[in-house]
Amino acid sequence: MVRRHPVMAAFAALYMVGFTARALAAGNHEFLFYAAVMAALAVGVAMVDERVRFSVLVVWLLAVWGFLHMAGGNVPIPASLAPDWTPPTEGARTVLYNLRPVAWGPKYDQVVHAFGFFSATLACAEAMSAAMPGLRLSVGVRVGLCCMGMGLGAANEVVEFVATRFMDTNVGGYENTGWDLVSNMVGATLAAVAAGRIGNAGRGEAA
Question: What is the domain count for the chain?
């Protein structure tokens, strides 16, 4: 993957190193946990890519999702831009994940969830196409793709729950988890509809 997509690999390496260094300097243990998870996921994607050879589009969508996730946990914002945020601990600072520009709109976190599992579901579509050449993306297959994306989203919520068991986090409560799952469903559904139209463009090209 690094050889085929050197620009993407450099982009991902830069933000991983930069945001991890920032978290270390700030003593942000929650983010260091997520950075470790991100590194493991990056290795997993690279291993799957050896077989699937993800398209340029999917590779970049996943890389941008990683950037948005890392920025979300690291970039501080004024509390005035997060009207429904409740500090989990005394002296806690709100970050980009808590951004809600308008009271009736989604939070940054929810937008990133939708974008991320849109990207992950497209990756699932390409993996299925590689495993089953000639697969027709029927309605049933698209429903299956949506379920795959939502399953990955549920796994993400399990990771967040694990983090709450041994450290103070900014994850939020039951309502936040529910909105995360709704956002995951929106992204997975959009990707399942779009799969085959945009998901296989540029397979194997360098970027």
Answer: 1
